[in-house]
Amino acid sequence: MTTFQVNKDALLKMNLFVPKDDSRYFLQGVYIQPAPNGTYLVATDGHKLGVWQDESATIEGDSQIVKIDKTILDAIKKDKLSTTLEITENQVTCGDSTFSNNEGFFIDATFPDWERIIPKEPPKDIAQISLNPELLKPFSLNNKK
Question: What pTM does this model have?
Answer without folding.
Answer: 0.82
